[in-house]
What does this fold into?
Amino acid sequence: MNVVVVESPAKAKTINKYLGPGYKVLASFGHVRDLPAKDGSVLPDQDFEMLWEVDGASQKRIKDIADALKTSDGLILATDPDREGEAISWHVLDVLNKKRVINGKPVKRVVFNAITKKAVLDAMAEPRDIDVPLVDAYLARRALDYLVGFNLSPVLWRKLPGARSAGRVQSVALRLVCDRESEIERFISEEYWNLSAILKTPRGDEFEARLVSADGKRLQPRAIGNGEEAGKLKALLEGASYVVDTVEAKPVKRNPSPPFTTSTLQQAASSKLGFSASRTMQVAQKLYEGVDIGGETVGLITYMRTDGVQMAPEAIDAARHAIANQFGDRYLPEKARFYSTKAKNAQEAHEAIRPTDFDRVPDRIRKFLDDDQLKLYDLIWKRGIASQMASAEIERTTVEILADNAGKKAGLRAVGSVIRFDGFIAAYTDQKEDGEQSDDSEEGGRLPDINARENLAKQKINSTQHFTEPPPRYSEASLIKKMEELGIGRPSTYAATLATLRDRDYVTIDKRKLVPQAKGRLVTAFLESFFTKYVEYDFTADLEEKLDRISAGELNWKDVLRDFWRDFFAQIEDTKELRVTNVLDALNDALAPLVFPKREDGSDPRICQVCGTGNLSLKLGKYGAFVGCSNYPECNYTRQLSSEGGAEAESNGLNEPKALGADPVTGEELTLRSGRFGPYIQRGDGKDAKRASLPRGWKPEDIDYEKAMALISLPRDIGKHPETGKMISSGIGRYGPFLLHDGSYANLESVEDVFTVGLNRAVTVLAEKQSKAGGGARGGTPAALKDLGAHPDGGGTITVRDGKYGPYVNWGKVNATLPKGTDPQAITVEEALALIAAKAGKSGGTTKKVPAKAKTAAAGAKATKTTAKPKAAAKKPAAKTAAKKKSAE
It folds into this structure.
């Protein structure tokens, strides 16, 4: 019997079926070791020795593997086929060697790109040793990320209160977002005009042609810069006669795109499905690990972390066979298409992302997939099969037209395209069962029949004013594309990098666009001012290239670390001499448009408008940066620094309190004010004055006396509950609008509900909350949001529930809170098991089966030092979230 180690229990179960009784497949649950989150885990002065720690949950997994090995013939490491998977195998083997359980038994590494029976059995027939250069590249990357994070972040905490962290790739990605915002702020819009003519052929067909030349000169885009110039040209066209000069029809071929890589899948899923990068990878992971198709668990797509754009020969053959069957022979090119990757070193390994079986058309397996899985699988299937289909044949017609007005001439052009043969486009439209060609369809608009030298009748002249627009903010898709173009980070880490920026409140997403927050812009400005080299795009890309060269065996990983650490450590030491005034001066200059927005009256935006003599400047407080007056404490003017700058607060008259009227009960004045944490309502003066922050979505300019009274009077009594006789009230708390009755809370849908909800509706909302909480008793178990099935160790089912402090995973008496920002409906079994194991390890266990094991695991979390260069097998870092690969970017 051989022991096989994979990463997730879902894969373990499926692969065990494929391999049969001669194998025992166990899951490592992702990484089994990690660098402890504390100083001293990487020791540059000791030749970059790295200290690894095995947490309590992983101790149990390792013990299970070690116990199985005692009666086995050998060990097969079958973790994922990329650098992270190689590292997991290395860690597992190193820990087992330290436990002295290998005892000379053969150890082999196998990789498969898809979880299908054929892929797994083929991999087992071709074992190899652990790829040492790939592990070296992992160690170098992990050490670099640790050294940057644990040395640069404390500098931020000391010099820039409120900043949470900095990272090797994270900070450069943030700089891209912030630089784009600065571009937008500096952008000056320019006016331009477009002119076109609606013309009619002798046969009565109308079409539009745009002006492209005048007086023998070609007009460049946006060349007509004002209305006066546009008016002259319009007058020329109004009185002109029109004749067709030339008509040229050209055949054009459009070729399909290659199958998806990790980054192109994330981009497509973002733009077409609205998926975040994290959501895309979660859904793709499930499609890769397997879905129950009619009683059999089958992996539907190949491995989803890849830089490669090529498909395996057998997959190409299968795609061509499916094309002939589903679309017809005309859609099958004479030769198979081959694509080459643009990545400098596609070490993520392998094939592009494709279906494991092209005969599994999305419609045929629709009933086995949830909505997200179907959408993503449909995207992958179409892209994969289209990549091997015939080119689309398009006829593009260009018509040149001469306009003559008493010797003054102008040129106009009309362009239209018609798809003569749809080719690969058919994969993205309705699939034809008989394979017949569709009728001609239009692409970019069809032109009527137009003949050279014929006269045209003018119907209308259009003259439209436009203004140039600033570059758009990045979306997740466009940022990923830009990072890939620059060579920053790696596709498999993009989702984690973007999630970190959101979790740190450095960026927010508004209408699918990434908006840098004030905190993020401060961090970027600080790093650009004092750590310029380490947020440069070229430097970061060059470091990525060195990591790739390590994985190719061309560079020694410790040499790369030494070169980096020498300069980086010196830069860190230099910041110790930095005074806060140096930091503030640099930030005031770097962020002037944000900190000192222009005023409508043209006055100096750096002069305090309250006292008239003080200079405004950034100030650093316990909770971050704000704008304050240099005459403090005589002048106590402050203004919150927000992503929209200070303009909003100033334009709304919030430099000084705005009187709104008197409270009819107390007689105290209600005022609208701006504080360090945003606008708020205040009743009265002094330290005992009552204050209420404006809820999210409320703008200062919309606040009147009625709204101010409603807000300052919260909580609002709605009425007595008909059953208990106790008062029901509404208010706005830390977690949003709520109802309160007899110590129990229930969420309301909107802020407006706080002021409008009636007694009947309030009773209904409370009853619904009580019902979800499990039948009535205060403190009862909330109803399950999602059932994940039985725990592999027994002891009942695993469920996802919503509690007072947010969603959590429940198993027996173990409750494990979901990480911030996690979608409860997207949580996987593997992620849930990891959270439960971690929680049980900390608490000592509370269910029937957990106590002894959990106590053992918790007591055994032990750190081991590793010297770096691995031999046939060595060690590897582990992510604390066992089911997910850790990206330290």
